[in-house]
Structures are given as structure tokens and as C-alpha cells.
Specification:
This protein is mostly helical and 156 residues long. The chain has one domain (17-147): Arc Repressor Mutant, subunit A. The chain has helices at residues 17-37, 43-53, 60-67, 71-83, 105-126, 130-147; strands at 87-91, 99-103.
């Protein structure tokens, strides 16, 4: 048997920007996941809670559209948050045929605490860049996202 020659044109993994983005993303996401899970919620539940924080209530379909998840996924997340006492589901005041999802008092108190965890997590990883370099990184990532028509909240 003789060995198949290695082509010299095969690029190494770490020559790709996607490699470095994934490496950093995995680190940031994993650290944040551990921190929010220690507070009793998942990252996906946090995304729902944060979206609800800016409203007095919304219907599940609007919530799904806002965060870029399917209605089924949002329904499961809402059910879990209801069971935890963080979210309530009621009838829409304007049209009682529709449901409204909103944060409970406990949920409203928890969101700022989780947001502070997210802020601290970002500062731990990206704080050394300084405001100008962080701003440039965000601008570049937003530009890439726009060019690729990416939307919705990353939850996994």
C-alpha cells in the first residue's frame, strides 16, 4: 500500500474566520448559559423574557415573530416559564379570543438581574477591546448579518 499524497491546497481549520467566530461564540455562549441556568432559566427562556420585558403583554404569534422562533417553540417556552411563575398567559383585553403573554412581577424583577449577567459576560470576554474596537466589531457583525439577511435571536 502507498499513502495518498496530501494536497497542499487544503487550508487549515484556523485559517477560516468562521472557525474563530465559532470558537469565541461557543466560549461566550457556554459561559452565559451556565450563569443563567444557575438562576433557573435557559438561554431560550431568557430571550423570551427579555422580549416580554419591553411590553405590557403580547400575543404568542407576535412574540414568535419578534424573536425568530416558531410558534410551537414559543408555546413550549411560555409553558415552561408559566410553570416557573415567571410568565402569565391571559386573555387579550381588546379581543378576548386571543391570548396575551406577559411577565409576572417575579419575571419583571428577574430580567434586569439576567441582563446584568449578560452585560458582565460580555465585559469578561470583550472588555479588553475598549469601546472603539468593540463598536467596530459590532458594526462589522451587524453588516455581515444584514448582508446575509439574518434575523431573530440566537438561542442555541
Amino acid at each position: 500500500m502507498h499513502a495518498t499524497p496530501k494536497p497542499s491546497s487544503v487550508s487549515p481549520l484556523d485559517s477560516h474566520l468562521g472557525y474563530w467566530l465559532r470558537l469565541v461564540s461557543n466560549d461566550v455562549s457556554h459561559a452565559f448559559r451556565l450563569k443563567v441556568e444557575s438562576r433557573g432559566v435557559t438561554v431560550a427562556e431568557w430571550v423570551v423574557m427579555r422580549a416580554l420585558f419591553d411590553s405590557d403583554g403580547t400575543n404568542p404569534s407576535q412574540l414568535a415573530d419578534q424573536i425568530g422562533l416558531t410558534r410551537g417553540a414559543v408555546s413550549k417556552l411560555v409553558d415552561r416559564l408559566v410553570a416557573k411563575g415567571i410568565v402569565r398567559v391571559g386573555l387579550d383585553k381588546k379581543d378576548r379570543r386571543f391570548q396575551t403573554v406577559s411577565l409576572t412581577t417575579a419575571g419583571r424583577r428577574l430580567v434586569p438581574q439576567l441582563a446584568a449577567i449578560a452585560d458582565d459576560n460580555d465585559a469578561e470576554v470583550f472588555g479588553f477591546l475598549g469601546a472603539e474596537r468593540r463598536g467596530e466589531l459590532v458594526r462589522l457583525l451587524r453588516e455581515i448579518s444584514a448582508r446575509r439577511s439574518l434575523s431573530g435571536a440566537p438561542v442555541d
